[in-house]
Amino acid sequence: MKPVKHYKHFIFDFDGVISDSYELAVEKFNEIRNELFQQLPKVETKNDMAIVYAGSLKTCLNKWIGQEGTKIFFNHHSKRMQEVSEAIQPFRGVVQILNSLGEKKVSIVTSSYSEAVINILSKDISFNENMIYKIAGRELHQTKTEKIINTLTELGLTKEDAVYVGDLESDILYCRDVPIDIISVGYGYHPSEYLQNFKPTYFVDSLNELGNLLNQMNPSN
Question: Which of 91, 109, 175, 209 could share a disulfide with 182, CB 3.0–4.6 Å?
Fold first, then answer.
């Protein structure tokens, strides 16, 4: 792991990092599989999730259902997750971590719709919209790499000025395409050991560890 650096901006994935959505995501995966794509493996564990969500999310299901099928699958999955967003909560304490980073120092880059992001964050009474610079959601029809680069360009920041927080192998791959440093979290959709195989810049196993690391990275502290 690299020595801890200071960063001017903090870019977060949403599902599995900020929102506690893993169980519903698995439920919706299997629901769509059973209805439309029975050639997909059934998902029951995080190890199963590492199999179906291996590599880039844009292509991870191609070997079972092809490129068009993968696109259809994720359109269905995002729509159904938005429909059940009322049942999803942010992880306890994560909003306080975001607030601690400072006004407009947080952006969220996600394959979820930005409306669902706001709805879920607003369930925590401490949520302060002023902490968010931008939510780049599914409605933008861009890859995460493009969303990260566009966010940095808008802010007038270099790639060295920001760090990304994600929970999937694909997040590591997208960040390498930028390239930008990444904190991988082991409490999200992919197992800890699996993520560490891809040698992210930083790795944490819990929200408490994430909060402590971000506190060290924030030059305002």
Answer: 175
Residues with Cβ within 8 Å of 11's Cβ and at least 6 positions away in sequence, in order, are: 106, 107, 108, 109, 148, 151, 162, 163, 164, 165, 180
| Secondary structure E strands in the chain | 9-12, 106-109, 132-136, 162-166, 181-185, 202-204
Between CA 42 and CA 151 the distance in angstroms is 36
pLDDT, tens digit, 9 for 90 and up, residues 35-64: 999 999 999 999 999 999 999 999 999 999
pTM above 0.85, yes or no: yes
Neighbours of 125 (CB within 10 A): 6
- Residue 199 φ/ψ region, left for φ over 0, alpha for ψ in the -120 to 50 degree band, beta for the rest: left
Residue 84 and residue 135: Cα distance in Å, rounded? 19
Both tokens of residue 13?
A: 């994935």
Closest CA to 163 of 95, 96, 103, 216: 216
Question: Coil, strand or helix: which one is 181?
Answer: strand
